[in-house]
Amino acid sequence: MGIAIDTDFPLIRKMRMGDEQAIEAFVRKYYPSILKYCQTHVTDQGHAEDLTQDTFARFFRSLNHYKHYGKAANYLYTIASRLCRDYYKQIHELPFETLPKTPALHAPPPEQQITAKLALGSLPPEIRETAILFFMQEQKQKDIARILGISLPLVKYRIKRARELLSDYFNE
Fold first, then answer.
1. Together in a domain, 114 and 154
2. What is the pLDDT of residues 1-15, one digit of tens each?
């Protein structure tokens, strides 16, 4: 078992010194996954893109105060999660009503996307958030705990509960 190399730390150090190439590399590395996350929460492609850009803008504004303890992606997801929540508070939109306008590369067929969104939409909000991060964003449980600010046992419970509820949904 090899030791994982943290490639974000040198990038962050360079970004703090104003290295434009490091900033570009960082955005290229994380933009697709943060956009996909926002698209999962927001029905409008333009709003999802705006929230993604706002996520990176907030990250860069706080870069000098950012403490790098592990994965920068966790911090990005935390910012994106808060922005998506704020978005819903402003417009009172229910999530998962429509599909994103532009399909992702290697996306499942539209009927599977619709079924998945309906199934996820049937979950209680706190379980839905955990399920999206685990099943769709393929985040590790410990990372989900950090992103959501909850305990690892609670993450495990929510994933177990999501599996149960999704199983019930698909068996109906």
1. yes
2. 444 456 788 888 899
Whether residue 87 sits in one domain with residue 143: no
| Positions of the chain with pLDDT under 50 | 1-4, 92-105
Q: Record the pTM.
A: 0.62
Tally the domains of the chain: 2
Tokens describing residue 54: 């706002």
Q: What is the spatial distance between Cα 130 and Cα 92, in angstroms, rounded to a whole number? A: 21
One domain, residues 76 and 158: no
